[in-house]
Amino acid sequence: MWSLNGSIAELSGGLLHARVDLRYPQRGLVGVRLSNDSPQAHSLPIHHMLQVHLAGYQRGNCTILDSFVRGPDLIVSYAASAIDDVQSQVYWRALSIHEHEAEGAELIVSVQTESLDSRPASSVASELLAQEVWTLAENGEFERRDQGAMAPPGNAFSSPHGVTLFRLRGLPFSYTEMIHPSDLGQSTISAGDGASGSFESRYPLFCEPLEKGVIRRSRVRGLFLPRHDDTLAALALYRQFAESEPPLTV
What we know:
The chain is mainly beta. It has one helix at about 230-245; strands at about 1-5, 10, 15-20, 30-35, 40-45, 45-55, 65-70, 75-80, 85-95, 100-110, 115-120, 120-130, 130-135, 140-145, 155-160, 165, 175-180, 190, 200-205, 210, 215-225.
């Protein structure tokens, strides 16, 4: 499902189409659309999906050590930056979960170091437009968060379980993002100016120091699903994700 041409990778062949420049993982997946090769292709209001902000790389391009495609996986290894001795490996794994009509990707980020003590702090983020935003609350039910005092323009609100559902404006689709509970930190959603319906989700990764010889790994999923019964489907998808075994990676 992935094709790789130099540093540009494209996801196609299924319902989800997108591309990523491997030199700039912080830009994430762009040009996101859903299409089954019919005339009705839906360009989605996702500016950047599953951006990866790696430790030590704040801006500019990242140094690629290796990149290849294996089945549904796009796998990229990055060298340590000049300011932080942390090597990273990123998987963009194409996902299709038929029982919930869900299409998307799982992001798997791994870090390791040769230093005795390193700071591998990284994050995953997405930027999109949405009509409604719901987060999974402490009571296990979805709660709308984009209205009134719950989402003051320019401010951020938390996602207690790291599970958010975005109802996309003018489309019969919703988009849900979720971080695996074993990786959960202070996940936040930042609201734009209110009128535009712009939002940014952010999931901090690897906030603790990293010791030499230790590999740490985190997972975030982004999935598109039909609007009808989307909260029930998103909850089922999260439970399935939470119960899943750690991925096999190299």
